[in-house]
Amino acid sequence: MDASDSSAQWKKGDSVPYSALCKTFDEIEATTKRLKITELLTKFFRQVLLLSPSSMLHCVYLCLNKICPEYEGKELGIGESILMKAVANATGRSIANIKTDCAQIGDLGSVAEASKKKQMTFGSGKVLSVEKVFATLKEISGITGASSQAKKIDKINSLLVNCKGSETKFLIRSLEGKLRIGLAEKTVLIAIAHAAILSNAAEVKTWSKDKLEKELENGSAIIKQVYCELPNYDLIIPALAQHGIKALHDHCKLTPGIPLKPMLAHPTKSLTEVLNRFENIEFTCEYKYDGERAQIHRLEDGTTTIYSRNSENLSAKYPDIMALIPDVVAPGVTSFVLDCEAVAWDIKKKCILPFQVLSTRKRKDVAIEDIQVSVCLYAFDILYLNGKPLITDTLRARRQNLRDSFLEKEGKFCFAKSVEANSVDEIQTFLDESVAGNCEGLMVKTLDEGSSYEPSVRSRNWLKVKKDYLNGIGDSLDLVVIGGYIGKGKRTGWYGGFLLACYDDDSETYQSICKIATGFSEEDLKQHKEFFEAHKVDTPPSYYKFSDVPNIRPDVWFKPVQVWEVKAADLSISPVHLAGQGLVDLSKGISLRFPRFIRIRDDKSPEQATTGEQVATMYRAQNLNTASGPMEEDY
Ligand code: ATP
């Protein structure tokens, strides 16, 4: 039976057949056109809203391959060996045969689907519903302890036995933690908004084409803004059903306890660039502290949580900050959300220590009495105070609120050092001071005009000036390690180099950008060897884009699990690498010249790596003043 058969019988009030969702996934997989994908998903969501509205939340989660809000940190990502065993069990094939097929096809989902097709036995004939699949996936993610592997396999089999057609493929991919159909979260958000608007058929009928387009655009903007402030579908989807899209933002706003996506900055290459950008606009320069971003939430009941740049709960890593907070809150302050940088602090010399020192702190279950590296918190923004979001206030007003609501404590809690400089000389002096004080450079921010806090946006109202990158490429890049080259000579036994990739969020692919072999200490090489041992894959996943030429193909492929900060001398058009392919040159991509490893970025997930679009922007900025035009690398 094909995935569409049971979906054809989907009636009002039924739960959503899993086959209907998988049919949509099949259609999405068959195209790369973003508009088409949006249209297909909108059509599916409209049906869900019409026939089974209570299933909308589960459908959204399955489209995103999530089982709960991201910041809760529960992921599927079941290990390959468990999944292979489950597929072997469910299809009666040997694990060895499944492995061989996988090495050839590169996708366990497709192998499972083909294996099921060959099978002579049939399942119970039960129709799987989206609810059932979602609930089982959630159960599987919660299984821990003794014999958890067998229990997980049992649960997976209970679904597999009833899967038909492409349901098998997508179930396996969901369990692996990646659907690989090119469905990005922003497309899911737009489709939710479009479906909500179009479901109101009576009203839509009265609109002109222009009006409809405008409404769809507004709806998309509303839901994206809401999601940046409140990244929690458990709250957004029911609120959408109850209040509609237009009123959604009135009911879903920044809320303490739910980490919002942080505002990001644009890189700059010169101080004159800063002055040009902010001509006739009041701006402020702040030290750019080099530590770990900490978003601190305090609820009315006193509950405090520290979140990373990546919305990971860091409260157990920083019990010292947790203990400090009550001492630095001014009287009358009940609830807040603070944006800060936690920086390593030398208690004896009373000065900031470099990031490398902070990175030696344990990440989990830190006992306050065992802490070796002290931290000082530098607060640079306040986003919520005493029951009210502040993000639409000006930075000037937010900064005043910050200073009125907290008390500085030397070496523990300080306000980010700032100055209202106006000339290149003044900014340069402040920049030199910041670097002498172990900071990375400056953050330059508008104070009034356009100075609202823009969650998740890489805003031109925040410019970062990193001393090391002035007159260079403007910034370091955060890249994903996708492969390794076996070391020779002094590096025998380790990897001698690695293949790095940027992330293209539109196509959900990792595009190779350079090989890297410099910047590693012996300790780094040892650590990388150990770490990647557990993340090897036999074949490159289908979502890796690289030129399959001998000079590039790594000896070993890795899953996309780690992000590295990398410095480079410059960027060049590349005959072999594919970063930002098509954005600067019609067919070629961009590559880094003289890349150097700086550090592991534990606070970024692979999908938050530098994007192909950003690489292209950096390349264009670099070449603005190059009369000779774009450089081409030889390889
Ligand atoms: P990006 O995604 O922009 O590359 P990133 O996480 O790599 O961001 P940076 O490029 O170093 O970080 O710049 C932004 C970071 O600087 C913020 O995420 C924050 O952690 C840090 N920071 C330090 N001081 C400040 C400040 N005064 N204002 C804002 N951010 C600051």
TrEMBL record:
<protein>
    <recommendedName>
        <fullName>DNA ligase</fullName>
        <ecNumber>6.5.1.1</ecNumber>
    </recommendedName>
</protein>
<dbReference type="InterPro" id="IPR012308">
    <property type="entry name" value="DNA_ligase_ATP-dep_N"/>
</dbReference>
<dbReference type="Pfam" id="PF01068">
    <property type="entry name" value="DNA_ligase_A_M"/>
</dbReference>
<keyword id="KW-0067">ATP-binding</keyword>
<dbReference type="InterPro" id="IPR012309">
    <property type="entry name" value="DNA_ligase_ATP-dep_C"/>
</dbReference>
<dbReference type="Pfam" id="PF04675">
    <property type="entry name" value="DNA_ligase_A_N"/>
</dbReference>
<dbReference type="GO" id="GO:0005739">
    <property type="term" value="C:mitochondrion"/>
</dbReference>
<keyword id="KW-0235">DNA replication</keyword>
<dbReference type="InterPro" id="IPR050191">
    <property type="entry name" value="ATP-dep_DNA_ligase"/>
</dbReference>
<dbReference type="GO" id="GO:0003677">
    <property type="term" value="F:DNA binding"/>
</dbReference>
<keyword id="KW-0233">DNA recombination</keyword>
<dbReference type="GO" id="GO:1903461">
    <property type="term" value="P:Okazaki fragment processing involved in mitotic DNA replication"/>
</dbReference>
<dbReference type="GO" id="GO:0005634">
    <property type="term" value="C:nucleus"/>
</dbReference>
<keyword id="KW-0227">DNA damage</keyword>
<feature type="domain" description="ATP-dependent DNA ligase family profile">
    <location>
        <begin position="368"/>
        <end position="504"/>
    </location>
</feature>
<dbReference type="GO" id="GO:0071897">
    <property type="term" value="P:DNA biosynthetic process"/>
</dbReference>
<comment type="similarity">
    <text>Belongs to the ATP-dependent DNA ligase family.</text>
</comment>
<dbReference type="InterPro" id="IPR036599">
    <property type="entry name" value="DNA_ligase_N_sf"/>
</dbReference>
<keyword id="KW-0131">Cell cycle</keyword>
<keyword id="KW-0132">Cell division</keyword>
<dbReference type="GO" id="GO:0005524">
    <property type="term" value="F:ATP binding"/>
</dbReference>
<dbReference type="InterPro" id="IPR000977">
    <property type="entry name" value="DNA_ligase_ATP-dep"/>
</dbReference>
<dbReference type="GO" id="GO:0035753">
    <property type="term" value="P:maintenance of DNA trinucleotide repeats"/>
</dbReference>
<dbReference type="InterPro" id="IPR016059">
    <property type="entry name" value="DNA_ligase_ATP-dep_CS"/>
</dbReference>
<keyword id="KW-0436">Ligase</keyword>
<keyword id="KW-0539">Nucleus</keyword>
<dbReference type="Pfam" id="PF04679">
    <property type="entry name" value="DNA_ligase_A_C"/>
</dbReference>
<keyword id="KW-0547">Nucleotide-binding</keyword>
<dbReference type="GO" id="GO:0003910">
    <property type="term" value="F:DNA ligase (ATP) activity"/>
</dbReference>
<dbReference type="GO" id="GO:0006284">
    <property type="term" value="P:base-excision repair"/>
</dbReference>
<dbReference type="GO" id="GO:0006289">
    <property type="term" value="P:nucleotide-excision repair"/>
</dbReference>
<dbReference type="InterPro" id="IPR012340">
    <property type="entry name" value="NA-bd_OB-fold"/>
</dbReference>
<dbReference type="InterPro" id="IPR012310">
    <property type="entry name" value="DNA_ligase_ATP-dep_cent"/>
</dbReference>
<dbReference type="GO" id="GO:0006310">
    <property type="term" value="P:DNA recombination"/>
</dbReference>
<keyword id="KW-0234">DNA repair</keyword>
<dbReference type="GO" id="GO:0051301">
    <property type="term" value="P:cell division"/>
</dbReference>
